[in-house]
TrEMBL record:
It is an enzyme of class 2 (transferase). This is uracil phosphoribosyltransferase. It comes from Rhizopus stolonifer. It comes from the Eukaryota. Pathway: Pyrimidine metabolism; UMP biosynthesis via salvage pathway; UMP from uracil: step 1/1. PANTHER family: ADENINE PHOSPHORIBOSYLTRANSFERASE (PTHR32315), URACIL PHOSPHORIBOSYLTRANSFERASE, CHLOROPLASTIC (PTHR32315:SF4). Belongs to the UPRTase family. Residues 2-155 form the Phosphoribosyltransferase domain. Its EC number is 2.4.2.9. Keywords: Allosteric enzyme, Glycosyltransferase, GTP-binding, Nucleotide-binding, Transferase.
Length: 156
């Protein structure tokens, strides 16, 4: 294709790409990804972090019986403790994907959360915009961005 600055050679992704937003906050990343992968199926996973133990609790899973994708992007704006991220990847591997098929996309991650995700799943790729140093006693990244789901949906 010709652009004002020269020729552009688009890249064609041959894999069947799927999107897996972690509810609720991951939904905010879906429209941008659908711009690039308009035919991608969107499979929702509902996992929240229990307030006291910070352990993940699965409450919703709309993965089909058998994987219908060759590769998926997990969409969750924050990797704080890493517990939800690990649980999400566990579910995708139980579903039938291997680590090379899973790409975890977040905006901000803590060193602790990234280390935990890498330790449990060294075979996946993680894409982040920034890394913050600490997680506070409430399980939030510090300085971080607060509860991204509440901020996104104006429920804070």
């Amino acid at each position: 294709a010709q652009t004002p600055r020269g020729n552009y050679y688009p890249v064609q992704v041959r894999n069947k790409v799927g999107l897996v937003p972690v509810l609720r906050s991951g939904l905010g990343l879906v429209p941008g990804f659908l711009n690039y992968f308009p035919d991608a199926p969107v499979h929702h996973l509902g996992i929240y972090r229990e307030k006291l133990s910070h352990q993940p609790v699965e409450y919703y899973n709309k993965l089909p019986q058998v994987p219908n994708v060759d590769m998926c992007f997990v969409l969750d704006p924050i990797i704080a403790t890493g517990n939800t991220a690990v649980a999400t990847v566990n579910l995708l591997k139980e579903w039938g994907l291997n680590g090379s098929q899973i790409k975890f996309v977040a905006i901000v991650g803590s060193k602790q959360g990234i280390d935990q995700l890498r330790q449990e799943h060294p075979d996946i790729r993680i894409y982040l915009a920034t890394i913050d140093d600490a997680v506070d006693n409430y399980g939030y990244i510090s300085p971080g961005i607060g509860d991204s789901g509440d901020r996104l949906w104006n429920t804070a």
